[in-house]
Amino acid sequence: MAGKLWIGIDGGGTKTTAVIGDENGHLLAVAKGSSGNLTAISIEQLYTLINNLIDQLFIQTGVTLSDVETVFAAMAGADRQAEQQKIYDAFKQSPVLEKLRVQSDIHAALAAGTWGREGTLLIAGTGAIIFGYEQQKTFRVGGWGYLLGDEGSGYHLGKLAIRSVLKAHDNKMPLKLFQEKILSHFNVLSPDQLITKVYGSTNSVAAISSVGRIVLDAFEEDLIAKSIVSTVQEALLELIESAYSRIDRTKPVVLHGGLFSNKPFYERFTVRFSSRFPDLIALKPPISGTVGAYLLALHESEIEVSDPVKQTIQQTWRLLEGEIT
Amino acid sequence: MAGKLWIGIDGGGTKTTAVIGDENGHLLAVAKGSSGNLTAISIEQLYTLINNLIDQLFIQTGVTLSDVETVFAAMAGADRQAEQQKIYDAFKQSPVLEKLRVQSDIHAALAAGTWGREGTLLIAGTGAIIFGYEQQKTFRVGGWGYLLGDEGSGYHLGKLAIRSVLKAHDNKMPLKLFQEKILSHFNVLSPDQLITKVYGSTNSVAAISSVGRIVLDAFEEDLIAKSIVSTVQEALLELIESAYSRIDRTKPVVLHGGLFSNKPFYERFTVRFSSRFPDLIALKPPISGTVGAYLLALHESEIEVSDPVKQTIQQTWRLLEGEIT
């Protein structure tokens, strides 16, 4: 191979994806594996996963490790130095080690939204959190988890929806269509069985969050669903509010996580966001977290990503992404 | 013995207490045992517990089972018929069976507040719930547990307190004295360690609820603590609001659970309660749940509890209660 190559790996809760490309933004191949969340899999499994992904990329491209400058692994659950060190330790005997950089997958999401390392990320997934990175310093606002209140999260959305069913039941009100759907979703006939069902779930938080989809499907037609979604969005706006003084207003606020994948939710949110914070811009990342990890690999070699390079990345990504989504 | 006797047993989360008395309200002896919560102990343990308590009462009084008309066991966790049947089944081979009546401990708390079987109970313990019993029918409002939001509970109180610490930290505000105490309570130096500590607890909900005491101690002096307590009380008032149409306004609303044991909390709450619901009366039970269970035993024999009997109960109870509290 002429010139060097860079690998980006994005390890999420359900899948891990990898991409390899050159310094001009030509993405050559992608690979896909299982969950890369360090809190869910063992360090041995993570080691095998990363090696497999790299091998897949090498087989597709005929590249060898000596052609690779950096492997940037952005892994869920690798937020703290202790976790990152665990991953480095796993590669102690491997030639990959000297090329490996480990970070949280949050950094890849941020890079996917900003094309760079710095900026602010608003995550509305199962949890809700603001993550900022400026001048090599990170800050977090929110992200307190379900026990201390994850307002603005998918859990919050699901919880409010289930509560609306229980409230209707307590007040002897008839159920709305989306509330009936929540009962069917849990396979129960009456609201008072819901509580037992939720607490009896193997993963109650996931069970509650799973209801969010039903509300999102209904909120354009149903007033109760609309007010639930509005409450969740208000909580996200308040999260921005409380982080406001620390947000770099020269960069967009990147919207990340499952709730923003819902188009009507995303559209309504950005309208409210703009009217509340006219000096801020909120956007969904134009590229995937996998490409974000690749960008971070380039950054490690201090390679400037110019506009033509960005275009090349987007063009070549479009040809590859079908293989891993 | 001349005449018959009645036994009341109140099984709670940390202790179970029993009392024996006659139809004129003369309480003769009390006994104390460990937790009687069916969700926490096995049915064999519960069987042994109840037998031990009865034996203790018999030893103290020289009474035998043939002198006893009814043993009323009001046990935490025995809300549903299935659980009650389990307890009856455990006594299948025992002569106690024909005298045994099993109910939830909630009924004993209600009886302790109303001297009768019917009325409304507002519970603000680890959970928050309204429990009503009218014409042999029960109703419940709230009580959805921590995952679906137990607004008005000790968990809610603790959660808001911890959130106030995290919020202060997110906004780089100095901590108030009671917030510092929360850090010491969890043995951490910085608010961001709180989250790890709470989620790492064996019983996170109990850990969060345990903070309530710190807020209650502070709320008369500290404005943030005051507003937290006010939010929790407002949630309890809203619970009453949503149950309002089903509450029997001829009977008092009985206040039950740990939060009401705090005198300033109780006093402030009753003031707000009276101004919000001028046609309702809220009160703390004049007698204990153990005596409530004894009253329910009397009710099983359709014995009227007249005012002189009530006086005798209160007088004789005062002599005994020191032994079991």
Automatic annotation (TrEMBL), chains A, B:
Among the GO molecular function terms of this UniProt record, one is: kinase activity
Q: Does the keyword Kinase apply?
A: yes
Query: Keywords for this entry?
Result: Kinase, Transferase
Per its UniProt record, what Pfam families does this chain match?
Answer: BcrAD_BadFG
Highest taxon of source:
Bacteria
Q: Which residues form a coiled coil?
A: none
Q: Domain (ATPase BadF/BadG/BcrA/BcrD type): give its ranges.
A: 7-297
The answer to whether the entry has keyword Hydrolase is: no
* Alphabetized InterPro entries for the sequence: ATPase_BadF, ATPase_NBD, Euk-type_GlcNAc_Kinase
Annotated protein name in UniProt: Predicted N-acetylglucosamine kinase
